[in-house]
């Protein structure tokens, strides 16, 4: 159970990081 929760947390964190990098890339392209 604890391992599953840890895996889910890491998955959410990685998705959030990808979104931040994606929007950062868009801002660079707009500038």
From TrEMBL:
It comes from the Eukaryota. Keywords: Chloroplast, Membrane, Plastid, Transmembrane, Transmembrane helix. The chain crosses the membrane at residues 6-26. This is Cytochrome b6-f complex subunit 6. It comes from Caulerpa racemosa (Green alga). The lineage of its organism: Eukaryota, Viridiplantae, Chlorophyta, core chlorophytes, Ulvophyceae.
